[in-house]
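Dear U.,

For the methods section draft, I wanted the exact inputs and outputs in one place so we can describe them consistently. I've listed the two proteins in the order they'll appear in the manuscript figures. Please don't edit the token lines directly; just add comments below if something needs changing.

First protein:
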Amino acid sequence: MSVIRQPGILGRTARRRVVGVTAALSAATVEAVAVGVWFSLVAGSRTTSTALAGLGILFCGALVRAIVFGATVNEVGDLLKPERLSAALLLTGSWLVWLLVAELIGGVGGIVVAGVVLAGALTAQLFVERRVFCLRSTYLTTRTPLVPGCLLAAGASALLAAVWFVDVTLATPPIPLEATTVVLRVDALHVGLVLFGLFAFLAHQRRFERLLEP
């Protein structure tokens, strides 16, 4: 009660934690949806239309994540500034390079090498994104976001490993709904996306926790 009646350090810390967790959940949701839809498209029939659609989804997801980040640490401002668009393009390119490296090498080695490449690329992207949005404080630009980048890469590796090496499909019995029946299926892709979403939340939570601390 004393903290509520007399806001102080503990009150400000609690508010920062709430803001950080909310922002991390929002950013992770956007990232998981964008990467999940893109990965689902390219994992299926890879045509020119699906490739272009996947690129568009990745880029839009990067822009939305930038909005969440900017609104949390500073202000959104104009997203069409070249440096802010370059951060979104760098994020989109990082995912493309990751999948290309993994498929070129193949197997467990491909997942490991691609994960290392992605960790470096995402660390650089997070650093660039932080610099173009955190314009009011030089303190915010002094820490390299290595841990968030590695966590995102670990989630991506888990997603790829689940799709490549796990061949399990769980299905519920038919559920009657009026004139039709519904069957719920959970396969390796869904498991991988859940794991990726979890790692993405941990990554962004760690990121915002450090950026919002005084």
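Second protein (the one for the lower panel):
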Amino acid sequence: MLRIISLFLLIAFISPAFSQNGASINRPTGATNGILAVHLDPSAMSNILSDPFRGQGLKTKDAFGEAEGNPFLFDDWKEGDVTLKNGEKYALKKMNLDASRDQFVYTVNDSLFEFSNNIKEVRIYGDDHKTDPSSDMVFRTDINPDAANFVQVLSSGKVTIFCEYSKKPEGENYSNGIVNNTRKYVLHPNYFSIVNSHSIPIKFSSSILENLTSDKKNELNNFIKANHLKVKNKTDFLKAVAYYNNISTAN
């Protein structure tokens, strides 16, 4: 009888971290800086893709035939962490974005799995993660006002810039004995700003920057000149936007 009571008490305190079976049941604490490793039981989960889908040297097939490459955003698996909608945060060693389906996936024991819709944020650690967390790539589904898709947040504040990635097979498989063409996965990064609660496509240019930051034109021009920025360059454009957001918040 005591064993039965103990079992019910144990079950009452257990809830899964992810929607998949076999996920970790630990909870973040101050001792772990709010981040816990995920411990999964692959035997209790179903693969979404079969071997040898590992993201490199892969050939896939669709309705239009075979295509070289893969739908992943990154050539290598990336370390990072995921934050659930309930605020819990978990660390993962190998993650990637399937940019053909707008779906993050991760590997455990050479098996590939995907997250369900309980993810609030995915953070991919940059090379300087420990010393410079700003080198991380942050993906969220609550940024794009026109779609609940994963986008990379490039700047946030009065001016929010984000990138939407798409990777699909392009071209056709063709050979006439002399010329050989092969369908290949091609990655397209598309950049947007949020204007009047809608996502507007942008390009990195001085005119676009001026339109987005017109109320601080003089301050921004001085900042660009002092730092020798070339706003046609993505990095410099985003530096200027970050400065604008800072002075707008301060004011």
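Candidate sentences for the figure legend, describing the second protein: The chain has a mean pLDDT of 78. The two ends are 67 Å apart (CA to CA).

Thanks,
Y.
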